[in-house]
Amino acid sequence: MNSGTLAGSLIFAAVLVVAITVLIQLMMRGWHRRSQRQAEMLGDLPEMPDQVGAASLTTRGHYCGCTVSPTWNDRVTVGDLGFRSKAVLTRYPEGILLERIRATPIWIPRESITAIRMVRGIAGKVVARIGILGIRWRLPSGAEIDTGFRADHRDEYDAWLKGAE
After folding, report:
1. For the residues 16-45, what does the mean pLDDT come to?
2. Can you give the pTM of this predicted structure?
């Protein structure tokens, strides 16, 4: 390799590193701006009550994310709602608790739930055959969001759908 080719390769590598760095910064800025816009629109999440009744249904699986209703691909990025994780979904008489690994739990009051149904995709996660459990609920601010949960055992969806009737 001659010195001209080496210099050209080094310049190309430096330009490539700078371009990738700029793209990553632009993506992070976009994520942050989206989070700020949504924080104003969504407000605070409901707090879990001090006491709840006995759990009637518990399912292990994966939290797929939240989206602004009715758009299945408009991911909520406020706080840690935009990050997927393993989770446990539990139904109580007062509402539904979604406990996520390394994230704050999400409490969905029973009176806020507008629908529990099967969806094919949510927040960029698409499941072809069986689907994802989608919980549509209204926040105290009045905004509606969908929360997606994919169970480890697909036969557990029936109990959640029957309880929604």
Report:
1. 90
2. 0.77
